[in-house]
Design goal:
The chain is an all-alpha fold and 257 residues long. It has helices at 3-9, 40-53, 60-74, 94-100, 108-116, 122-128, 139-148, 154-161, 187-193, 200-203, 212-220, 222-237; strands at 136-138, 173-175.
Length: 257
């Protein structure tokens, strides 16, 4: 999981779930998502069970939003009310995903601008980045940071280099959160304060810039982080959803009806 996937994990229109077709190349193979966004089979299973009980009623977009919330809760994180009623997109765009999703090499200004373009504040962005308390990233996405950046803890960089050579091993994985990679907590921010952020874009949140004080606050006050994270998730879930007669309720999340 990377920051970019957070922007799609709420699945405002479920477009990331669509497989490529003869008429479009979807988002799964977009640069930030390729070999990184995973777990589509989990959504398939949920959708299949729901369709068996309540046909053509619950959208893939709503399933994705609920799964994101429930996944956070199961890993020890906070809960929030997921607004429902989204409908599913009937197309997807690899190029749009490539242009809209921030890369792991993004600067702080690029991150702020990218989230602002979706109506999300810098505080929202920093809170949502806390989703990196779980998940893993590919060597190709953090190699430049551990080999070339100055704002990285030397021992941490040496540890990560063991499984991420300077060339090759692009798909080798490392946890985004060094301390508790399978628990949703505020350790991600504690890592940033001691220069142990895995991605360049992670460490940009604590690098002498505008988000330093907020990162420090989150690192010592999990309640503030949880409150901001849940508020930002609700806000993100309301980004241009398809409602009413727009889109459709897909019967299979991987393809349009």
């Amino acid at each position: 999981m990377k920051r970019c996937h957070l922007l799609v994990s709420q699945g405002c229109d479920g477009s990331i779930l669509l497989d490529d077709t003869s008429s479009f190349t979807g988002e799964k193979s977009a640069g930030p998502n390729a070999n990184s966004a995973r777990g589509f089979e989990v959504i398939d299973t949920i959708k299949s069970n729901i369709e068996a009980a309540c046909k053509a009623t619950v959208s893939c977009a709503d399933i994705l939003a609920l799964a994101a919330r429930d996944g956070v809760v199961l890993l020890g994180g906070p809960t929030w009310t997921v607004q429902l009623g989204r409908r599913d997109a009937t197309t997807a765009s690899q190029s749009a995903a490539n242009s809209n999703l921030p890369s792991p090499g993004s600067s702080l200004s690029q991150l702020v601008s990218s989230f602002a373009a979706k109506g999300l504040s810098a505080r929202d962005m920093t809170a949502l980045s806390g989703a990196h308390t779980i998940g893993q990233a590919r060597c190709a996405s953090f190699r430049s940071h551990i080999y070339n950046d100055a704002n990285v803890n030397a021992s941490f960089a040496a540890l990560r280099k063991r499984n991420c050579p300077s060339s090759g091993g692009d798909s080798n994985l490392a946890p985004l959160d060094l301390q508790t990679p399978t628990t949703f907590d505020n350790k991600y921010y504690q890592n940033l304060v001691v220069r142990k952020g895995l991605l360049h874009s992670d460490q940009e949140l604590f690098n002498g810039g505008s988000q330093d004080s907020l990162v420090r606050q989150y690192s010592t006050n999990p309640a503030v982080f949880n409150g901001d994270f849940t508020a930002a998730m609700v806000k993100m879930g309301n980004i241009s959803p398809l409602t009413g007669t727009k889109g459709q309720i897909r019967l299979n999340c991987r393809k349009v009806n």
